[in-house]
Amino acid sequence: MTEKISRIAKYCIAAAGVMFSAAASAQELNCTVEVNAQKIEGGSKSVFQTLQEAMSEYMNETHFSNATFATNEKIDCRLYLTVSEYTDDRITGDLQVQLSRPVYNSTYTTTLFNFKDNRISFEYREGEPLIFNATTIDNNLTAILNYYAYLFLALDFDSFSPKGGEPFYEKAASIVQAAQSLGEIGWKAFEDPKNRSGVLTSFTAPSTSAYRQMLYDYHRKGLDEMVTSPDKGRASITSSLSAIETVYNADPMSAALSIFRDSKLDELVNVYSKAPQTERESVYKLLQPIYPSENERLNKIRKGDENN
User: Fold this and answer.
1) Separation in Å, CA 215 to CA 18, 158, 208, 263
2) Nearest to 251 by CA among 196, 294, 191, 210
3) Rounded CA gap, 84 and 92, in Å?
4) pTM value?
5) Is the Cβ–Cβ distance between 114 and 92 less than 8 Å?
6) Sequence-distant (≥ 6) Cβ neighbours of residue 148 within 8 angstroms
7) pLDDT tens digits along 100-158
8) Cα distance between residue 260 and residue 271, in whole Å
């Protein structure tokens, strides 16, 4: 219980505005990085191993803020880069991005963010160091890594304090804006609703920002409470899901909707396994028009323990 209170208090203090100073701080991320280059035939594959090592070192040893994290408090995340093309130091592929969070007083870990970025392209020369610069964007690979690092922090802080991730969204927005001058894919507004600009907009636009409040209500008031009070915690989750309907009504193409689907639908099957039928029906009726192609999982929510 002490660790739970300590971490939540820390998040609230940080969210109040003590961020981004030049003071030394512990690194925030515990990031697993994997580079898969099986699609690339011939030639030496050592460049991909050094790339994996460089990306891992960058994400795990860079200080992205002045928030202090103990080793067991670091934010768990994963980057899985699949390389589809490699020519003249230009690497192209896709990046599967995942972020998780512990549920307190339990051994359970919940997924906060699960997203595949299909617009990955950057230049990397074997052995080239990746250098963090908080003010200048001149390298597309570090721009991508910075963007996801700040997004991880934003989403994690939002899950502990209502809209507590605001300073990190602002940092991610500044990266999106600056990176557009690089002329690389994945950054421009309106290029694709599910590129990096579109993902950020889905969380920060006034019309769809209800998703951010849901992150807090679902996780802090919902999952964290379910361990000691299942009915109370689940009721908070049920109430929080109205945000998905709000986002859908405002923007049916919002990236937040597919992110929620890929992060949460399987979890909701378990959350509602022992819920009253009326509660299961209400969740089904809310989600089914939004995810009509997900009937198998939605029906499991609807039927609860009847599936077993």
Assistant:
1) 22, 6, 13, 12
2) 210
3) 6
4) 0.91
5) no
6) 77, 79, 97
7) 999 988 999 999 999 999 999 999 999 889 999 988 898 999 999 999 999 999 999 99
8) 15
